[in-house]
Amino acid sequence: MVGNDGKTTKIICGTTVENSEPIVFEFHHDWAPLGVEHAVSLFREGFYDGAPFFRVIKGFLVQFGLVYDKELQKRLGDSTIEDDPQLDPPIPFVPGIISYAGSGENSRSSHLFVSYGSAASLGKMPWETPLGVVTSGMETLTSLNGEYGDKPGQGKIRNQGRAYVDKEFPNMHHMTTCAIQEGAIKELVTAFSSTGDRWLFISSAFVGAFLCFFVLRKLLKTRGETKKN
């Protein structure tokens, strides 16, 4: 896919699906810089922790991005950002592609969706620029309860919260908690290379390797002497 050489951020999320593996969202910053930065900041703030998968349409997509905390939804979830330009050629919507759900130009907020299948209808709107891909846990996403489809009212979720969902849609699945895994080692190498400290990095790595070798050699020698005794 286009953009795999750029910076990525992985988000690992648990769900209420029984006996399931966590979902790993891999966001590609060079696919949609504004959109990815916004989504990652929401995950970092814990916005999606406990969020319901309120729209599950088998074979099409799963959507999330509403939370039960009205103050949190208003403070973080309702803020919108500008659209990112589509890549040329565009990234196709195959299973696992992540994008924003929107209602018009520059309407991206907290609503994200993951495609279940190859959908030619997705990606045509300016707000549907792909953000990343699910690299693990797709089976968990496809196991989400889809009996409610489009029935859950987004306005009612916002206004009535968890009580509405528990009463009308008791089998709806939710996120549990999410954690950010940012490629620290890769970013460190990039930082050294870009700041002209490449030789410092190489020499530090060489010294580190030598010290590891020295310590290991000494441990092996001590172990051999112990065996002899």
Structure in words:
The protein has 229 residues and is of the alpha+beta class. It has seven helices and eight strands. It has an eight-stranded antiparallel sheet. The chain is globular, with a radius of gyration of 23 Å. The model is unreliable at 184-208, 210-216 and 218-229 (pLDDT under 50).
Over all CA atoms, what is the radius of gyration? 23 Å
Backbone structural class: alpha+beta
Q: What is the count of DSSP helices, taking H or I runs of 4+ residues? A: 7
Q: Tell me, briefly, the overall form.
A: globular
Q: What is the strand content?
A: 15-25%
Q: What sequence of helices (H) and strands (E) makes up the elements?
A: EEHEEHEEEHHHEHH
Main beta sheet strand tally, sense and closure: 8 strands, antiparallel
Give a count of the beta strands, DSSP E runs of length 2 or more. Answer: 8
Identify the strand order in the major beta sheet.
3-4-6-5-7-2-1-8
- Relative helix content: 25-40%
Mean pLDDT: 83
Low-confidence stretches: 184-208, 210-216, 218-229
Calculate the terminal CA-CA distance, rounded to whole Å: 60 Å
